[in-house]
Amino acid sequence: MAKVDYTIEGDIAVITVDNPPVNALGQVVRQGLWDAITRFDDDAAAQAAVIIGAGRLFIGGADITEFGKPPVAPFLPDVINRIAAAIKPVVAAIHGTALGGGLEVALGAHYRIATATAKLGLPEVTLGVIPGAGGTQRMPRLVGLEAALGLMTGGKPVSGAQALDMGFVDTLSDGDLRADALAYAAHLVADGAGPRAVTDLPFPGADPDLIATWRQRLTKTAKGQVAPLAVLDAVIAGTTLPFNEALAEERRLFLSMLDTPQRSGLMHAFFAERAVAKVPEIDGVSPRDISRTGVIGGGTMGAGIATAMVLAGLHVTLVERDDAAADKARDTIARNLASAVKRGKLTEAGRDAILSDMLATVVGYDVLSDADLVVEAVFENMDVKTEVFAELDRVCKPGAVLATNTSYLDVDRIAQATKRPADVIGLHFFSPAHVMKLLEIVVADATATDVTATAFALAKRLGKIGVRAGVCDGFIGNRILSHYRTAVDHMVLDGASPYAVDAALVDFGFAMGPYQVSDLAGLDIGYMTRQRKAADAHPRDRSPVFADALYHEGWLGQKTKHGYYIYDADSPKGRPDDAVTAIIDKSRADLGLTPRAFTADEIVRRTMAAMVNEAAWVVDEGIAQRPSDVDVVFLSGYGFPRHRGGPLQYADTVGLESILSDIRAFATTDDHFWTPAPLLERLVADGQTFASLNR
Ligand code: COA
Ligand code: NAD
To answer: I want to staple 160 with a disulfide (CB 3.0 to 4.6 A). Which of 114, 337, 597, 605 is the partner?
Structure first.
């Protein structure tokens, strides 16, 4: 079948877009739509046309694999204008999703019918561009400036039912969309309804106050991203120019964004998140069935993991050390569920059913005999973990998946505490576990492939992004993060203020600076990690003695209202503290260091070089399957700015040669920390990029 099919049913032309997997608007589909509308205009047997998508959705959008390549005619804005200019009524029939160019096609049609659950949106800003085929000009005409700006600058889709309320869908189908769309078209013909282009409606008048408010808001929230502000510019063009000129301005803005690093960063993130699920070793391997699960430990992580599981419809038995701890875990989970109710993610009845039927909080392991999967989240201590796994080995049924949420410990050793190491795997959740998207799936030496497949299936069920990691200290994320931490701690030792470091990295686009993160996590966590690693320290490692000093002051961060920052009613988000600066000054003096200045640019270059260098080791050792998997870990687990695509996409953008030459320059004063990774040297020698290794 052609990618766009034309058939006649009664006196209605049915134009079906059939371009799996998402009916993207590649050149062949654009030409097909053009030809179909021309045929419809000429077809005396057809009184109206219905455009519908084959398969599970209407149209997923422009073919984004064509972005960055020279555009080929017919261009989408022209195709959509052609649809709008049809001489008889055209109905768009929407199910599944209509996104980006897909929704713009629907806005070119004269009437729109959708299923109540369809998702309709203009998510272009999430890919670093703006609607480029009339979306910025047609949507405001249908829903007004405020609502259109909300849709286009946020990028979040709405349901068919919401679209009806907002006014850009005319009617809903509550059953068979195809039949309902045909009936709707027949009804329009019977009523003598003619073609009705959206552009016949007036563009809303200019509203300087509203525009000024949006500009201010977007400048603040866009954090260096250009697309949301470009949406605003395109909309302003609509308020002042005739349609054709405003459309040309929209196209100009759209095309100007195709060549930006932001567009390639965001697009890289989109494809990287899909590539991450491709794990050759589990290709064709069936996951084990999971319905009853266990969680060991109900602290910060255990309670969050249990929340994520029950919200995904899994039965959870949570095991704690004593009744008080079990009750506390239940309270935490109940609070998490209450906030899900508040955010509209769960009904009150749903919450009550979970608490009475889906969750047990108990003491003692024997109740886990029927669990299909158990996640251990007890203290980060090898002896405690191996004891727990020996117990699990004793009580769990054969075939149960036994997982550990350890952050750093050796999963191979944990597996050896059982007589069934093939069933053991690491499931490294991030805090808060019911919110954070990332799940590192740590595959140990003996892990069976169907256990790995089960972990990926679980990630999907929990709505998380599973990333395969190999066993090493810290896996992908925490291992690279510890080098990032070391680089910033060295700069503070050498003269940078932690506040300047945070400001430079937030300005780069990180959600939080490293010292703000320390305050959030608790300075005791870093202190314990340093203690644990002290025995293996190299004589040339430089310890952040100022961080130990703050710990000994009892300044543990947000939980004590004092860490690197002071938290009080006046500054709930924290303000710098002279006493901290004095402690850091004293630490430097004790070490005999003469402080020097660091610019924001040097702060960013040093942190990024440290991350990229360690990431190169992680890829070379096979701990991550491919460079883009490292990017996904940092985008979804560590607040790395999405428009930069992740640390390795960023490295490709600035050029590996420049990163390597920075590392060599930094090594002249510290060749212990700054040892170039062999993979980085090889890529530079071959004139290659990290992207060349993405498979
Ligand atoms: N152009 C080209 N390829 C696309 C695409 C697009 N617009 N949207 C999705 N794909 C590809 C994906 O890369 C994936 O390819 P793969 O199987 O080789 O990995 C495949 O189609 C399926 O996509 P996936 O996201 O896994 O399917 P889904 O059913 O979960 O979601 C969508 C479908 C349409 C909701 C989702 O793909 C999406 O959001 N796409 C982008 C839409 C968009 O931003 N459009 C605006 C562009 S103007
Ligand atoms: P926590 O101290 O908050 O909770 C640990 C819980 O385990 C406590 O409630 C304790 O009572 C319980 N426990 C201890 N021994 C037990 C046993 N034998 N049987 C049953 N329960 C027992 O710790 P946490 O922050 O939740 O961390 C748990 C694990 O998750 C650690 O391995 C940690 O490294 C890892 N982790 C933590 C984070 C984080 O941000 N906190 C992130 C990822 C992974």
So the answer is: 114
